[in-house]
Amino acid sequence: MEGREKKIKFPSRFSNRHWWIFLIFLVVVFFFLQLARLEPRVEISYSEFKALVKAKKVDDLIIGDRFIEGKLKEGASEILARERKSPVKLKSDRFFTLRLEDPELIPLLDRQGLAYKAAKEASWLKEVLSWVLPLLFFLGLWFLLMKRFGPPEGGLMGVAKSKARIYVQDEIDVTFKDVAGVDEAVEELRQIIEFLKNPQKFTALGGKIPKGVLLVGPPGTGKTLLAKAVAGEAGVPFISISGSSFVELFVGVGAARVRDLFKQAEEKAPCIIFIDEIDALGKVRGVAPVSGVDEREQTLAQLLTEMDGFDSKKGVIIMAATNRPEILDPALLRPGRFDRHIVVDRPDLKGREAILKVHTRKVKLAPDVDLRVIAARTPGMVGADLANVVNEAALLAARKGKNRVEMEDFEEAVDRVIAGLQKKNRYISRREKERVAYHEAGHALVASALPNADPVHRISIVPRGVAALGYTLQLPTEDRYLLTRAELLDRLSVLLGGRVAEEIVYGEVSTGAQNDLEQATEIARAMVMDYGMSEKLGPQTFRKRESLFLEPMWRHREDISEETARLIDQEVAALIKEAHARAQEILSKNRKRLELLARTLLEKETIEGEELKKLLELEHENHDA
Predict the structure, then answer these.
(1) Is 440 noted as a catalytic residue in this protein?
(2) What is the mean pLDDT of residues 206-228?
């Protein structure tokens, strides 16, 4: 600002310690520069010096207690060569030699008429500084580098210290009130709290307190939150560390950190040790891919040893979390180590509604917000996903200048999370937009006509995400864990409804149904190969499932004959053709409704479920009239 004096302010991190190091560095540099400026001198022996004195080939002598130095005259090299019996090439005309106890030296100098003077004794401080200053500089530099290699409390020498974060009782503000949607897991963990609060109640009858609790579930279901809630409810310290924090570059560091972790736990007992992502540490042991010591296996072995030797009577519970229990070492899962396995599954409809209530406590909601509808719109979502939906809705409302979050903000947030960001600036020609409208109308009409299909909640032809030009959203009325053959066939017909609509209206198909065909083919193949829903092949399966936890992945087929494989392909094709024929029959009979719905979509771009229902009822009344 003009008229004001600007003050230069150094960053706070440039502390006095750094200034002292910088100053010492300058002093050392100055000292070495002074040494570099000294004139080079030739070292000679005392006998050679006496010979030069006798030949009067020296001058400007300086005699000290321990040395003699001076200047060599012309011809001194010949005398030195004669003394050494070899040619001598002098690099300087200055010389020095060590002084010996020689009472004849001063009389000899007087006889030769050579001038000399006594040297001033060097200061002891200067001599000390000549080696102390460089030593201090390099020691300071070494300690500074050691500090930079690690945390302030450990540095390079503290590399074997555990990196666990310790939360005392006052720092843990999470309780079971902050956890929702996982009631079964909470009930199991309440027993752990009883163990921590009153261990004598269980040990009096000869029972043993569980040493370890393994929380198993998909990512985002709240495993870490549950562990903190247990510590918060029990009022004990919470020691948290990640499984990847044990393994380092240096061999043996991981095992040392495990020992240090359990040592800290004994000092803080009763307490909870929580190891997040334990699969990074506890994978199944096998032959190491390279020769030598496998650091990860050493660390795991140390963890197993510590758990075996740990006294559970002290009230220390070890909790761990993973979403891949199938890759954990069996020795880690046996009784006596991780005794309890608690599944933290994806929440159901009621659980999702409860989670939304937790995350909307501090959010100002409009009266029209129905959390149950939002929960029904988000099947399969976990706690982290639902928290993201609530946050997105709040951000959308704030961006629009609202003072409360309305239902439309939540609807938009769900669409954004599921289908992607709305592409308002993406240009789509009128012809393509019309085809998309007929495609989505075909899905909606088939879903509305079939008895086992989920009701349509929204139809939109607004582009979203990377490749979605439109979507038809069906809202399940309840969470389903079993599906019948009729329900799967209806799903196939709904998936093919968009492609069939294009066939009826345009007489040809486009690439827009690619994702629909992929899903339909996978459902049909699963019906034949996994669910035994083929009349020709009967109740048998033809695929072996190797699954990750709660995430089935088909690895390979079992050995089947070529004839059986041919029958499987025929049955899959027959199911898809049957679904295609049903969709074609429905849309052919409802051609006028298809046209009306497509025109309405082109006009409004988005149609809600209630509006679709009224539109179809109105068309039905007009048709009857």
Answers:
(1) yes
(2) 83
